[in-house]
């Protein structure tokens, strides 16, 4: 099972994720309306670009936007989960050894204690986000079965990875489960709301261009809602 998961299934999952997101990016930008969007972007490219960059980096900074400051607790949980969801998969030493073996590339690494801490923060933060969906009626009413499935799928690689890391029960079983759930995430990204992993940059860039040109940008407004 391990050989299958780390061989053909890994390459297929990665290929589906990359090709699927290329298609999603094309569909996103091709779907922009010339009447509502592209005309302004074409006429004021420099201001649009500045607005796009400002929108992206402001949303990458905790409490850097009006939206984050309006919901400080939710923002803390959001950033807590996404820090772990981005840093641990990309920069954990074991993951980079795997990437080097399979793809011939590796990134800088974080120490095991740091990765452990980020994993715990991510799990606790995601449990809080799940609790929020259960407790707040305005959020619960917008949550369907697909949303719950995505939440469970998002947390599965962390839980299985922790069980393997601390060798709870059968190590081989949890290692295979960790790899499988991680690959399921790759498969799901282009077809679910998990696509925001990449489409975040597209949507934030477009909204930033809107605010940078059409919604006060020409008058000097630097709002990043």
Would you give an account of this structure?
The protein has 225 residues and is mainly alpha-helical. The chain has one domain: Fumarate Reductase Cytochrome B subunit, CATH 1.20.950. It has 12 helices and no strands. It has helices at 2-6, 8-30, 34-43, 45-59, 66-70, 72-91, 93-103, 112-135, 137-140, 145-165, 171-188, 196-213. The termini are far apart. The mean pLDDT is 82.
Name the helix and strand elements from N-terminus to C-terminus, one letter apiece: HHHHHHHHHHHH
Class derived from helix and strand content: mainly alpha
CATH architecture: Up-down Bundle
What's the helix count? Answer: 12
Q: What count of structural domains? A: 1
| CATH overall fold name | Fumarate Reductase Cytochrome B subunit
Q: Low-confidence parts lasting 5 or more residues at pLDDT below 50?
A: none
Strand content: under 5%
Beta strands, count: 0
CATH class identity: Mainly Alpha
**Envelope shape:** globular
Overall mean confidence score, pLDDT? 82
Largest beta sheet, briefly?
A: none
DSSP helix fraction: over 70%
What Rg is obtained from the alpha carbons, in whole angstroms?
20 Å
| Termini gap | 47 Å
């Amino acid at each position: 099972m391990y050989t299958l998961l780390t061989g053909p299934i890994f390459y297929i999952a990665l290929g589906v994720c990359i090709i699927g997101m290329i298609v999603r990016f094309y569909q996103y930008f091709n779907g922009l309306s010339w009447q509502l969007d592209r005309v302004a972007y074409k006429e004021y490219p420099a201001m649009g670009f500045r607005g796009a960059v400002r929108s992206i980096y402001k949303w990458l900074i905790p409490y850097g936007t009006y939206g984050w400051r309006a919901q400080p607790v939710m923002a803390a949980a959001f950033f807590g989960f996404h820090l772990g969801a981005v840093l641990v998969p990309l920069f954990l030493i074991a993951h980079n050894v795997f990437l080097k073996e399979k793809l011939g590339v590796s990134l800088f690494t974080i120490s095991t204690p740091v990765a452990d801490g980020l994993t715990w923060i991510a799990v606790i933060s995601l449990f809080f986000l799940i609790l929020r969906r259960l407790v707040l009626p305005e959020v619960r009413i917008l949550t369907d079965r697909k949303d719950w499935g995505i939440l469970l799928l998002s947390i599965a690689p962390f839980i299985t990875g922790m069980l393997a890391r601390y060798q709870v029960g059968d190590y081989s079983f949890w290692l295979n489960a960790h790899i499988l759930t991680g690959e399921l995430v790759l498969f799901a990204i282009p077809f679910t709301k998990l696509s925001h992993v990449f489409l975040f940059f597209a949507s934030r860039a477009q909204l930033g261009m809107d605010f940078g040109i059409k919604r006060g940008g020409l008058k000097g407004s630097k709002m990043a809602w």
